[in-house]
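hiii, so i know i said id send this last week but things got crazy w the move. better late than never?? heres the sequnce for the chain we talked about at the cafe, plus the structure i predicted for it. fair warning i was half asleep when i ran it
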Amino acid sequence: MFGLLSRKGKKKKPLDAARVPDGMRVYAIGDIHGRKDLLKKLLKQIEADDEERGPASTHIIFLGDLVDRGPDSAGVIEKAIKLKKKQPHNVRFLMGNHEEVFLKACRRQDKKVTRFFLRIGGEETILSYPISKKEYRELDMKQLTKKLPEIVPEEHLEFIESFEDQIVVGDYLFVHAGIRPEVPLPQQEAEDLRWIRGEFLNYRGDFEKVVVYGHTIYKKVREKRSRIGIDTGAWDTGKLTAVGLEGGERWYLQT
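okay and structure toks below
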């Protein structure tokens, strides 16, 4: 796939050689974490950028972790659902580790899962649904576990359950966290795609695709060999990032 030669006869780096199919334009959005305000701003930037660049088959890919930590996870999910309904074939969503835990907390009715959900930022997600801070604080863990499926709309849960684990477009692979090195893409485990960190980030070789991922926070976009990390810690920094791809071109938008 890679290994294209430049005019000087030198082997191109995977990032330089990677392309998306002709006629396509792709925007991938990093971890939102409940920041509906930033999502709205970034989507407006994408819309303006897309219009300025001219006609193309435009696709938007969300890299996961729409929920937790920020103040309006429920609002982000609502916005995402509306976007998907408006463009059902051109907007896709990846399952992040935070969506995985959120779903388990709502579906399994297990106090241990609920407790872990709270530990990773679930309190903010819960409070974005119809429950007051006073009522939330008065519930013990058993009561809160029972309350979750009562306040979270079934539509939200079914929507999240439809999220994908990996998306391939041309020479690019989009995942939430990363991939297990030297494991073929069809054999990658969902747990790795949603949770992996060190083994993926520290790998010194190249992958069969350029991997675009979130999950790991950087102060600015991280480009390295065949990896592009675009989680810029939106919930805390106010910087929500998207990468744009067309042909062999690559650019970034940020709130």
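btw The longest strand covers residues 210-217. thought thatd interest u
miss u guys!!
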